[in-house]
Amino acid sequence: MIKIFQVVSGGSPLKWALAGFTLFLFFAGSVLAKQVVEGVHDDPGEPKISVARPDPDDVSNMAFIRSGKFLRGSNFEENKAAFKMCRKFDKACKLWWFSDEYPAKLVSLDNYWIDIYEVTNEQYLEFVKATGHPPALDDSCTTDACREGNLWDGASFPPIIRKQPVTQVSWYDAEAYCKWRGKRLPTEAEWEKAARGPSGSRFPWGNASPEGRATFNRKWKGMYTMTDVGSYPEGASVYGAFDMAGNVWEWVGDWYDRTYYTKGTKSNPKGWSKGEFKSLRGGSWVNYADSLRSAFRRWSRPDVRFNDTGFRCAKTAPPDMKFVN
Asked: What is the rounded distance in angstroms from the CA atom of residue 125 to the CA atom of residue 278?
């Protein structure tokens, strides 16, 4: 503004005209800049999306999953084994709880990328600051016990959790973040293949115990509950994806349906086009080992937030891409 007023201080009519035009451009530019910072709404119901988004072609820190078939789900014998494992921790466990994993089928997927790590608090904060999206916390809490699950205080959090997976995000929050990054949520099938590999192992690392390979079976200890992403190298999947068992449940793109494995397609399945619940995968810090199995399925309303639920993103890869992990 100082420079503008210095121009106006001149005496000629031409200078005054130029100064007025300069002033107009200044304020017009200020309005445009304000729109860029605050975000532009294509639809009042959509989250704010910044004009200056991250590079949509950036696939650093993503694992490439080559097209092909993999074994999805569980057969009846595996269902019974899961039931037996569950009964060790929960006497109320029922065999039908695992029927949504049945039957085991070879499913075909195209090329895609998936995040090597779960989205962290520091990454999600970048999104919040860039777009004006609400911070990662449950603002519907009415009890102290519920509020204790909020590790964020407004748009800030303790430095110790910056590399821990973000939690207290709904499915819609997760979808908005991935969209901002030029990505999307993985389908259930994509998530399961990235976790189990093509042969369908019990856990991402194979069939051995989760001890020393995942964060699980813990009590809530606030900011000390979860671990930084990538803390268990021996827990990585065959594709190099970390923390696909334990730490936090992960939202995926599909609407949940108990019988989808029986009725759905075997080629690039994406779930039904509508539903009531969204699927989650992977188990979390609070679960026992039986819930960490890569075939285990959970569901939740898409608008709720939990202190044990986060996500990672995926991205479709070109069909002719050749890459070896």
From this structure: 24
